[in-house]
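S.,

Sequence below, as promised.
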Amino acid sequence: HPLPYYLGPGEAPNATFPLYFVSWKEVEHTHSRTFNNEWLMEMKGENRLYVHPTLAATKGLSESDHAWVQTAHGSVRVRIHITAGIQAETVGFVRGFGHWALGKLAKGRGAHDGWLLPGKAEVHSGQAVLKEVACRIYKDL
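The prediction came back faster than expected:
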């Protein structure tokens, strides 16, 4: 198609995965090497899953609880942050964490969003699909 056009999300919420998962970058970290900077890790040492208070209440989640995020592509265990700063039907966290072999500070800190994403490109830009992936969350028992 010669012009950009709207294409709905490939993975809309459904009965199995009723929520949207999104991930984003924040100013404390850029790419992967900043995750071994002591000052930056002191400011932002892990990525917590942002969950709206209403959703947290329905799932029995409290601040700092551990929970699982699951998509059709995989699952990760992550600590919860309850905030009204995210929509009730969406959960998400900062990308870039969850290293398994990168440096003494980064290794084993936070969750890696790559395990949750489809590994495909967005149709217009060719950028990786990093948003609007259907998911579900549940408390880690």
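The chain is about 10% helix and 25% strand.

Coffee later?
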